[in-house]
C-alpha cells in the first residue's frame, strides 16, 4: 500500500489494517488526495501508463492498492451520448453475468464525476491482432490452442443461462494473459438474448469480420454472426492474412456477400474444412458451435473442462456463513485474505458483493479470481499427439491495419 509513503501520523498507524490505512490516506494524506483529484488514483487503484485504446476508451494499467495489477478501461462520460451509454450499461451487465476462464473478468466499476472506469482482469500479453502483425501467423498447434479457448468462451456465452452475443469478435478483441492463454474481451456491442432465435437488427461490429447477412440489411441471429466472426479470426490466425479485404466498403461488402475468399492450399486439410464450414454465406448452413467442437482439426485438443469456474455465489454464501466449520480451502483462503486486509464481517454483510460499484466487491472478485487461478482455472487446452507445424511464412498482406468497431449500418 501507499501508507508507508504517507508516513505514520502517530503511533496508532501501526495498528491499522491495510484497508484502514488506505481509507485514512484517501481522506487525510495530501499526496494521496492530490492523486485522486488528478486521476492518478481512482478509488483503490493507482493508475499507470496507457496499455491500449479503442474507439470509445483508453485502457490503462493500474494497481489495486491492496491486491494486484488490473486494467482500467476509462470512458469519458461527457463524450457518451444516450446510445453509447446504453451500450456501456450492456457491456457492464454482460460482463457481470459471465465467469469463464477465457472471458476477461470485470472486477469493479468506479465512477467519478467525469469518467467511468471498468476495472478488468489484466491481459499483459497483448492482443491477437498485434501478435500476428508483429510476429507472424500462429503455428497450427498454437492456432488450435488459441481457437479452442475462443470456442470455449463463445460456447459458454451461448449457453442458455448466459445467452450473450458478443457482436464484435475480432483479433483485436482477443487478448493474451500469458504466452498462450487467451481471453475474449470488449463486450461493448454485446447483447443478452432470451433465446437464440431472437432476430436482432442492430448492425454493429467491424466490417471485415461482419457476416454477409449484416450487409444484406436483414435481421440476423446472433449466434451465427459470432460464429462467422470466429471463422474470420481463425483464417487470420492460421494464414496471417484476412479472408475478405478490399479498398472500399462497397467492394468489401460485395466480397463478403459473395463469400469470395480462398484458403491457401498449404493450410492443413482439417483446418481448411473447418474454415469452409464456418464461412458459409447462408447462416443456416454455417457450422454450429458443437459442430466446431467436434471437427477433425480440433480432435487432438483436450479441453480442461474440469476447470470450469465455480459458482461465485456459492463461495459468497459460504463466506457469509460464519458458523460453518467445514469451509472449503478456497473460501477459507479468500476469507482470511479479506480479514488480513481489514475487511470485517460487517463489510461483507452490508455489501452483498453483487454490486460492481463497490470497492468491497472489487477486492472480493479479485481475490476469488486469484484463488480460481491457483486451482487451475486458467489451464490451457492440450494438443495430443501432434507434430509441430513446419515453419512457413504466412501471407504478410493486410498487416498493421487495426479494425475499428462501428455502431453503424454496414452499407
Ligand atoms: P473498440 O471498440 O475500438 O475495439 P473499445 O473502446 O471498446 O475498443 P477495448 O477493445 O475494450 O476498447 O480495448 C481497447 C484496447 O485496449 C484493446 O485492443 C487492448 O489492446 C487494450 N485492452 C483492453 N482491455 C484490456 C485488458 N483487460 N488488459 C490489457 N489490455 C487491454
Ligand atoms: Mg476492442
Describe this structure in words.
With 411 residues, this protein is α+β, with helices and mostly antiparallel strands. The chain folds into three domains: 82 residues, Phosphorylase Kinase, domain 1; 194 residues, Transferase(Phosphotransferase), domain 1, CATH 1.10.510; 63 residues, no CATH class. Helix content is 38%, strand content 15%. The protein contains 15 helices and 16 strands. Strands 1-2-3-4-6-5 form a six-stranded antiparallel beta sheet. Strands 7-10 form a two-stranded antiparallel sheet. A two-stranded antiparallel sheet has the order 8-9. Helix 8 runs antiparallel to helix 10 and helix 13 packs across helix 15. Bound molecules: adenosine-5'-triphosphate and magnesium ion. Adenosine-5'-triphosphate binds next to strand 2, strand 4 and strand 6. Magnesium ion binds next to loops. Its EC number is 2.7.11.1. Belongs to the protein kinase superfamily. Keywords: ATP-binding, Kinase, Nucleotide-binding, Serine/threonine-protein kinase, Transferase. This is non-specific serine/threonine protein kinase. It is an enzyme of class 2 (transferase).
List keywords for this structure.
disordered N terminus; Transferase(Phosphotransferase), domain 1; six-stranded antiparallel β-sheet; globular; Phosphorylase Kinase, domain 1; binds adenosine-5'-triphosphate; binds magnesium ion; two-stranded antiparallel sheet; alpha+beta; 15 helices; about 400 residues; 3 domains; single chain
Task: Enumerate the distinct ligands.
Answer: adenosine-5'-triphosphate, magnesium ion
State the helical fraction.
25-40%
Number of domains: 3
CATH T-level topology of the largest domain? Transferase(Phosphotransferase), domain 1
Strand content: 5-15%
Structural class determined from secondary elements: alpha+beta
CATH homology group of the largest domain: Transferase(Phosphotransferase) domain 1
* Mean pLDDT over the residues: 83
Distance between the termini: 52 Å
Low-pLDDT segments, ≥5 res: 1-9, 322-326, 387-400
Number of strands: 16
In the CATH scheme, the class of the largest domain would be Mainly Alpha
Which term fits the overall shape? Answer: globular
**How many distinct helices?**
15
Q: What would you say the CATH architecture of the largest domain is?
A: Orthogonal Bundle
Rg: 23 Å
Summarize the main sheet: 6 strands, antiparallel
Strand order of the largest sheet: 1-2-3-4-6-5
Protein name: non-specific serine/threonine protein kinase
Domain Protein kinase: 45-298
Catalytic activity: L-threonyl-[protein] + ATP = O-phospho-L-threonyl-[protein] + ADP + H(+); L-seryl-[protein] + ATP = O-phospho-L-seryl-[protein] + ADP + H(+)
Region (Disordered): 1-20
Amino acid at each position: 500500500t501507499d501508507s508507508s509513503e504517507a508516513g505514520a501520523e502517530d503511533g496508532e498507524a501501526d495498528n491499522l489494517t491495510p484497508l484502514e490505512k488506505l481509507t485514512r490516506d484517501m481522506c487525510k494524506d495530501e499526496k494521496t488526495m492530490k492523486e485522486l483529484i488528478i486521476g492518478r488514483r481512482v478509488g483503490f487503484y493507482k493508475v499507470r501508463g496507457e496499455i491500449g485504446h479503442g474507439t470509445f476508451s483508453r485502457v490503462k494499467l493500474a494497481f489495486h492498492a491492496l491486491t494486484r495489477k488490473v486494467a482500467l478501461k476509462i470512458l469519458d462520460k461527457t463524450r457518451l451520448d444516450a446510445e453509447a451509454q446504453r451500450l456501456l450499461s450492456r457491456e457492464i451487465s454482460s460482463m457481470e453475468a459471465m465467469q469463464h476462464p477465457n472471458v476477461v473478468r470485470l472486477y469493479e466499476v468506479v465512477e467519478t464525476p467525469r469518467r467511468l472506469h471498468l476495472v478488468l482482469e489484466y491481459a499483459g500479453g497483448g492482443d491477437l491482432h498485434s501478435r500476428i502483425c508483429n510476429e507472424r501467423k500462429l503455428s497450427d498447434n498454437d492456432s488450435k490452442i488459441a481457437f479452442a479457448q475462443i470456442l470455449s468462451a463463445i460456447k459458454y456465452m451461448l449457453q442458455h443461462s448466459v445467452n450473450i452475443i458478443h457482436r464484435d469478435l475480432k483479433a483485436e478483441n482477443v487478448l493474451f494473459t500469458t504466452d498462450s492463454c487467451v481471453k475474449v474481451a470488449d463486450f461493448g456491442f454485446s447483447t443478452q438474448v432470451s433465446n437464440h432465435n431472437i432476430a436482432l437488427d442492430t448492425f454493429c461490429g467491424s466490417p471485415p469480420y461482419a457476416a454477409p447477412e449484416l450487409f444484406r440489411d436483414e435481421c440476423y441471429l446472433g449466434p451465427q454472426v459470432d460464429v462467422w466472426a470466429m471463422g474470420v479470426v481463425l483464417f487470420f490466425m492460421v494464414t496471417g492474412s484476412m479472408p475478405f479485404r478490399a479498398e472500399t466498403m462497397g467492394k468489401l461488402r460485395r466480397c463478403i456477400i459473395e463469400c469470395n475468399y480462398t484458403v491457401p492450399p498449404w493450410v492443413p486439410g482439417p483446418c481448411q474444412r473447418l474454415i469452409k464450414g464456418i464461412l458459409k454465406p447462408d447462416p443456416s448452413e454455417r457450422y454450429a458451435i458443437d459442430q466446431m467442437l467436434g471437427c477433425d482439426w480440433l480432435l487432438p485438443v483436450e479441453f480442461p473442462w474440469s476447470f470450469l469456474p465455480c459458482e461465485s455465489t456459492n463461495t459468497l454464501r459460504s463466506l457469509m456463513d460464519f458458523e460453518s466449520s467445514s469451509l472449503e480451502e478456497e473460501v477459507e483462503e479468500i476469507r482470511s485474505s479479506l480479514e488480513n486486509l481489514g475487511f470485517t464481517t460487517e463489510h461483507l454483510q452490508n455489501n452483498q458483493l453483487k454490486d460492481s460499484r463497490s470497492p468491497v466487491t472489487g477486492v472480493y472478485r479479485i481475490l476469488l479470481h486469484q484463488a480460481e487461478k491457483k486451482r487451475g482455472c486458467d489451464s490451457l487446452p492440450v494438443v495430443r499427439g501432434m507434430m509441430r507445424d513446419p515453419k512457413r511464412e504466412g501471407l504478410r498482406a493486410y498487416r498493421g491495419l487495426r479494425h475499428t468497431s462501428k455502431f453503424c449500418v454496414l452499407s
